[in-house]
Structure formats: C-alpha cells, structure tokens
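Late entry, evening session. Most of the bench is empty. Finally got around to the prediction I had been postponing all week. Sequence below, unchanged from the version circulated by S.P.
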Amino acid sequence: MFFSTTPRPESLKALADVKLMPFWLDDPNKPEKAPPLTTKIQTDIAVIGGGFTGLWTALQAKQADPNRDVVLLEAGEIAIGASGRNGGFCAASLTHSFQNGRNRWEKELVKLIQLGGQNLDGIEAAVREFDIECDFIRSGEINVANEEYQIEELREEAEESAPYGLPIQFLEQSEIRKRINSPSFLAAVYDPSVAMVNPAKLAWGLKRACLRLGVRLMEGAQVTALEERRASVILKTPHGEVEAKKVALATNAFPPLLKRLSFYVVPVYDYVLMTEPLSKSQRESIGWHGREGLSDNGNQFHYSQMTADGRILWGGYDAIYYRNNGVAPHLENRPASFGLLAEHFFQTFPTLTGLRFTHAWGGVIDTCSRYTAFWGKAYGGKIAYSLGYTGLGVGASRFGARVMLDLLDGQKTERTELAMVKSKPFPFPPEPFRSPIVNFTRWSLDQADRNGGRRNIWLKTLDALGLGFDS
C-alpha cells in the first residue's frame, strides 16, 4: 500500500477541532503537582527524571531496602514527557524486536527473552499490588504487511523466532481481517507478549506507589548541574540542592547532565492523533474487539491502539530530528505531520471516513543507534544512567531501572553480566554533521518503503555496521 504524501481536504477537516495536547494528560483526575525542592537536603539515592525509568528506579530502590532514603527530582510534572505521550505499548521485548536482538546478541537472546518476560510480569504485579487503574490488558500486538514483499518477511519472523521460545503467530490475510478489518492488510504476525496501557495513568499510579513507600518526590525541580564530592554528588536546582551518595540519571531524550551522553542519543520527535469514540456501526466495520496493539511493517511505520473507551490512537510514521538536538515545547505541534497521519488513517480505515480527531500532540524519543537502552557509570560509580530506549521504554524502563540499581550497588548480577548491558551503541556524529546524516537516512528509509523494500547503498552500509535510524 502506497501511503500518500499529501492529505486530502476531508482528512484535514477531521483535524479541525483538535486539542493540541496529549489525550492521556487531558484527564480531570490528574494528580496534584508535588512541591519543588526549596532547601538543602541529603539522601542515599537521588533519581533525576520522573519518567518511567526514574519512577521504576525509585520504587524498586525502596522495595529492595525500605530503610534507604530515596529522593526523586522531576523538572516538570510526572508524565509530562514521553511517559504521558506514547502509544501505550508495554512490551516484554528488551531488544526492540526479535530480529534486532538476534542480530546483536544472538548468544544471549534466550536469556534476554526470559528476562523480558519476567519484567512484564513484574509490571503487571506492580499494577495489581498498588491498585493502579491504567487499563492494563495483555492483548498482544499485531504487526501487519501493507506491501506484498513484507508478507514473506513476517512469515520468516514467525518461523525463525519459534526456536527461541517466542510464540509469534503468522496470520494470513483472512485471519488478520477477521480480527481488524482494513483493505490494506495483506498478512500479519501476532505477538502475545505485549500489553496495552494508558501510560499517563500508569505513571501517575507509580508516583502514588513511590509516595506510599516513602520516596521524597519533588516536581518543578530541574537539576541544572552536578558537582562531584569525595563521597557524594551535589545536585543543584534553582531553589535548593541535594547531596546524594548515589545518583540515578534518567533524563531520556532531554539534554543530559553528562555531556558525553549527547553523542549516544538523538532526540527525535514523534506525532500522534486520537479519535473521538467510535459508534457501534463504526466499530463493527473494523472489528478490533481484542484491543490488540497495531503496527505496520514499514521502515517508517504507524502504531495504533484501541483504547478502553473505544477511541483509536494513531501515531508514528514521521520521526523528525530538529537541528542542534532541538527539544522545545513548540516542536510538539507539527501540522504537516498531523495532516499526513490523518490521511494515512483514512487510507487504512476508509469505513471510518467522517470520524473526527479530538487530540493531536508530539513527543520526543531518545533514539540510539542500536534501538535499545544502554547503561553506564560515572563519577567513580556514584552515578549510573540508563537511556536510549528508542520508543520502547514503557516496558523496558523497569528493567533499565533495575540494572541501574545493580550498578549503583556494585552488584554483579545476571543483568549486569549481559553483553547488552556491558556494551554501548555506536555514537552519532556531532553537528554540523548530525543533521544531514540523520535526515538523509530518513529519506533513504522512505525511498526503501516506496521501492519494494530495496535499500540503497547508504542503508546497506549502515546495516553492515549494525547502525541505522528508527522511529
């Protein structure tokens, strides 16, 4: 299926009344903002960043040792960043995909799959233990082929993943259209090891859980500088400071407090739409009663979910890098991307023509060259970091947090001994080279999608080096 590059008037009309804010955050039950830091305090562990990685770090630190003092500092509000802007896919995969994991860490892939399954079980257990109402459902994910050449790719994925214990099921055209009806769906694979969630509610629930266990949480407390002392690290904020024995750095795509990390992460903006609730007849025209996550197999792919109240989230495709690692609120609104998404939505679901979108938003993703999280230490082991999730952080962030705590505690575990944990992604070049390289790669991926998957010399070179670009 050829996705149009120009939206039709009827697609733009569906965007006429959108709110330019994340649907997940437009919630009257949003918790009150915690007070900022206004004094000088001391702590055992300070966590910088209140996204999923930071929340899971603080929560698991208190679960492991209730007597350990934990401080969590968030520059804005909990869930205001990627944790409240994503598609709500909570996957067991720690490697972004089976193929990516096999290409990079084939010898330990079985262990990575096992640890990923345990991690998803741990997320579900926490949702139950702390009564987090976030529409968590283990509905799985469907990845569809929209082009003939993609069918065999998906069939091979199902066959090749079976020996590793992954129950990925290939679906013929009649089978996928019985689940979710679209004229563009030619085949699919179904992966049951994915849950769908309302991500903001999950983040807010984790916030409440942290407070319940005694985490000292401050919002509106941006850390502006780190200062190493002999046995501690000083975290400076506009109105106070924290002296911490250990620091967990969980800043995602935002400018890192350790300059070296900027070479490993590229901030990429992703854009999302949310529809109004479907009518009964609209829902019957497409099915989708299992609430599976949905994605397509293009290089520039779309992702989608059916919410608990019968709306469709539709995002992806564009992955925009702004020069000089641009991260700013005004970049969250990109009408050109919203228009393309609307057009592609109605191309995929023509029976829903006339449906309107209620919300449109953007968010920044911490992309790295291997598409998975990476870890490390600084300041003689007093600081540990985890970032680079490349859009897969809803689930993998809990595992990333656990690895960070292992590193901070100086523990040798099955997690810290993984080659994935011990290695780093290939760094990106700095500006002025970064922008043209990233954008040429995006152009090349788009061309591959429009030419039967045929990759040009540049993409083949990146493949050979184990590098690339992914939304």
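Two things to note before I forget:
The mean pLDDT is 96.
The chain has 13 helices and 18 strands.
Will write this up properly tomorrow.
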